[in-house]
Amino acid sequence: MTLLGWQGDYAGGDLESFLEWAKGLPVPGLYEALREATCLEEVHRWRFPANLRRHYDKLTSLPEGFVVVGDANTSLNPLYAQGMSHGAIGTTILDRCLSEQRDAVAPSRIEGLSRRLHRAYSRFLDECWFTSTVEDYGAVSANGGGRLVSMAASWNLGKVTEMTWRDAGVAREFIDVMHLHAHPHR
Predict the structure, then answer these.
(1) pTM of the model
(2) Minimal CA–CA distance to 13: which of 38, 42, 50, 34?
(3) How far is residue 112's CA from residue 79's CA, in Å, rounded to a whole number?
(4) Confidence category of residue 32, pLDDT binned at 50, 70, 90
(5) Highest taxon of the source (predicted)?
(6) CB 102 within 8 A of CB 94
(7) Angle of helix 148-164 versus helix 168-178 axis, rounded to 10
(8) Half-sphere exposure of 155 (CA within 13 A, CB side)
């Protein structure tokens, strides 16, 4: 069982405090189900330090053949389940850039590949970054920092999340967007 807390509201590191924390979650029946379940191992806590995005696309000098995708490029909060998807899509973008390079330049030449890849990957990451950080930064915005657009998007995401509890179709679409199988603006 994995439960996720945020903004300082986290489960404790032992079974008793984990269950007590779960009791306060707004999901009907969850606490009762957990209380009746058999715990097979100790409770483990892990906290994600921060979202991190490196902008290789903005470097003025980039070694030829140097490509960075996945978490080495951009590390996203695992709460939103996008890390493996963005890494896999990054390799697809790399494959496309390699094909374009082969067709446009020469099969054995890599001049410009790094720049082409990082620019294309950055455009893709803009969407990942927005959907993965909107809730985190929306929370910051609500506490006095950040931007109005983050607050509005965070509010909207909260409403959609509530709908997922009651509507399986909305839940499927939400998961498709969060796992990067569908565009967030559809």
Answers:
(1) 0.70
(2) 42
(3) 35
(4) very high
(5) Bacteria
(6) no
(7) 130
(8) 8
Decide: 100 and 112 in contact? Cβ < 8 Å: no
Residue found by looking up tokens 């054995």 in the block: 108
Q: What is the DSSP string of 55-90?
A: -GGG-S---TT----GGGTEE--GGG--HHHHHHHH
User: What would the two tokens of residue 4 be?
Assistant: 């996720």
- Tens-place pLDDT, residues 129-181: 887 777 666 555 444 455 666 667 667 777 887 888 888 998 888 888 777 77
* DSSP secondary structure letters along the chain: -----BTTB---SSHHHHHHHHHTSSSTTHHHHHHHSPP-S----------EE--GGG-S---TT----GGGTEE--GGG--HHHHHHHHHHHHHHHHHHHHHHT-TT--TTHHHHHHHHHHHHHHHHHHHHHHHHHHHHHHTT-S-HHHHHHHHHHHHHHHHHTT-HHHHHHHHHHHTTSS-TT-
Q: From CA 66, how far away is CA 111, in angstroms rounded?
A: 11
Q: How far is CA 16 from each of CA 8, 25, 38, rounded to the nearest angstrom?
A: 19, 15, 13
Place of tokens 């294309």: 120
